[in-house]
Write a structure and sequence with these properties.
By secondary structure, the chain is an alpha+beta fold. It is built from four helices and six strands. A hairpin with a 4-residue loop joins strand 4 and strand 5. The radius of gyration is 18 Å and the shape is globular. It comes from Shewanella holmiensis.
Length: about 200
């Protein structure tokens, strides 16, 4: 669940988002109901990533000579994640697909061909392919601004579009952790790339 929506930063990243409109007359699902809404593939990926994180944390507490074991297990973990992600991507996706622009532990932003009313509520599937993260959550539109999409996503068609911001209204704690870790990984990759570009220009 979300306790403080101002706790986390967002990073620019392109990813897939699927939104399903949620009737405002329906109550927002609690954690247990949200878990029941997850597909089989999503449940498997979430459970495996939780087990991996716990296992690696315990191994890191051992002596330094276990470093090679940790690296080997990380490699095996990556393989399992990729297989599960493949299974997940083969599942039939429901809802309208959008291109994600930014994400973080508090919310996300997307590009839309049409405006979406502020206050609209959706069930939201987030797929971060490069980070092997898939999340189901509830979110609410907090802003909708018409923009030239080239200013926010250069690889997307230049036709006028809307930059839609969404805040999580219900999300599992472990999924917030996944998104925060993924955002930190993306940020580190961006910083590494910038450093490399500066060195190349010297």
């Amino acid at each position: 669940m979300i306790n403080d929506s101002n706790s986390y930063f967002s990073v620019p990243h392109q990813f897939n988002v699927y939104l399903n409109a949620w009737d405002k007359q329906r109550p927002i699902p609690d954690d247990n109901q949200l878990r029941q809404m997850q597909s089989t593939g999503l449940k498997l990926l979430s459970e495996v990533k939780a087990l991996e994180a716990n296992c690696l944390m315990q191994i890191r507490q051992l002596e330094s000579e276990t470093k090679s074991i940790v690296e080997f297990l990380k490699l095996q973990s990556r393989k399992v994640d990729l297989v599960l992600q493949h299974v997940l991507e083969k599942e039939t996706q429901t809802g309208q697909q959008y291109q994600g622009l930014q994400f973080g532990g508090s919310g996300l932003s997307i590009v839309s061909d049409t405006p979406i009313e502020v206050g609209s509520i959706f069930s939201c599937h987030i797929y971060l392919h490069a980070e092997v993260v898939a999340v189901l959550c509830m979110c609410e539109v907090t802003a909708a601004k018409q923009v030239n999409v080239e200013t926010v996503a250069p690889d997307v068609s230049a036709a006028p579009s809307w930059h839609i911001e969404l805040a999580y209204t219900q999300i599992l704690d472990e999924d917030i952790e996944q998104l925060v870790k993924a955002s930190l990984n993306v940020q580190q990759k961006m910083l590494k790339l910038r450093k490399q570009q500066r060195n190349d220009n010297l």
